[in-house]
Design a protein that fits this description.
alpha+beta; Immunoglobulin-like; Creatine Amidinohydrolase; 3 domains; 5-stranded antiparallel beta sheet; 19 strands; 17% helix; 39% strand; globular
Length: 329
């Protein structure tokens, strides 16, 4: 499993477009090779972590996740291109019954700018000889939808089974994801963020989340100009909370060289800004406006954003791709 620095996952697997070419910034690509097995009441994982990119990863740590339990390995200060490290993880799980048991291996790391990333591997541990899963098609329309989605989306086959439906008959499958794409060409970089669904239109909740996020993006983008105060941008973020939502990612930040620059803004209720509110935008700055609106329990969220060039008369958007919810398949 590989994870490139140009892709950020939020909530579910996402799609990414990475355009190659001479660029100042490199990429970190993490390969995960795990061997996971139950052993004496514990889940044991031997994980080989490799950096097959061309930039050094910092603060690399492996995490084993099983249900609500986690085991974190030691932190390796750096992982150079072409280098590998081994991690031994163990998590008490008791005696597992016959069946397919999902687990997750996550590799936490940062880039040279200390921006956090995570590579994820999802797998199954098989205990005994479990019978094939049974789906009550006649009684569960969701089961029919799940089967159709799993046929189109390999990652759903990894994390959703008929047993999930039996345990939570009222559950709803939300095949939604957000993706961030960073494109670099000869030192010029840009960023675009979109939300997408797989195989269906967004649910009412996701449509409302996206509507709030898009309204805030459009309001901030319309206000952006040289001389605009950071406090004025924070004023424009308040309707997110008034709608009953909050945010996960930063909502606005400077951009250059493929990384974050100040000012970095959230909302006043979630941390405010890293600069005084009377700080003003300057002509020639490139900024990213990216409302990442989520439910308070963080179980659903969307993101929409573009890179903007700040001018004296307004903001020039550096992307042309539509901002609506993207439907795949």
């Amino acid at each position: 499993m590989r994870h490139q620095r140009q892709l950020v996952l939020v909530g579910a697997p996402a799609l990414a477009l990475c355009l190659g070419g001479p660029a100042a910034a490199g990429s970190i690509s993490i390969s995960i090779a795990p061997v996971v097995e139950p052993r004496e009441g514990a889940l044991s994982a031997q994980v080989k972590v490799s950096n097959v990119g061309d930039e050094t990863a910092q603060s690399v740590a492996a995490v084993l996740v099983f249900g609500e339990h986690k085991a974190r390995g030691e932190i390796h200060p750096s992982l150079a291109p072409g280098a590998s490290v081994d991690a031994a993880l163990s998590l008490p799980v008791g005696e597992l019954g016959t069946g397919h048991w999902p687990y997750q291996i996550a590799i936490d790391y940062t880039d040279a700018n200390q921006y956090p990333f995570q590579a994820i591997h999802v797998g199954l541990v098989t205990v005994g000889s479990p019978p094939p899963a049974k789906v009550a098609v006649a009684e569960s329309a969701l089961a029919v939808r799940l089967c159709a989605l799993r046929s189109r989306c390999p990652w759903l086959r990894e994390v959703l089974t008929a047993d999930d439906l039996e345990r939570e008959p009222g559950a709803r499958v939300e095949p939604a994801a957000t993706c961030r794409e960073d494109v670099a060409y000869w030192g010029y970089t840009s960023q675009i963020l979109r939300s997408l669904t797989v195989g269906s239109d967004p649910s009412e909740l996701y449509a409302r989340l996206h509507r709030v996020a898009l309204e805030r993006y459009e309001a901030i983008a319309a206000a952006c100009r040289s001389g605009l105060r950071v406090g004025e941008i924070l004023d424009l973020t308040e309707p997110i909370h008034e709608a009953g939502f909050t945010i996960w990612d930063d909502i606005f930040h400077g951009y250059g060289g493929g990384g974050y620059l100040s000012p970095v803004l959230r909302t006043r209720r979630t941390g405010g800004a890293d600069v005084p509110e009377n700080t003003r935008l300057e002509e020639g700055w490139v900024v990213v406006t990216q409302p990442n609106v989520i439910t308070p329990d963080a179980r659903a969220g969307v993101q929409v954003g573009n890179a903007l060039l700040v001018t004296a008369t307004g903001a020039e958007c550096l992307q042309r791709f539509p901002t609506e919810f993207v439907r795949c398949a």
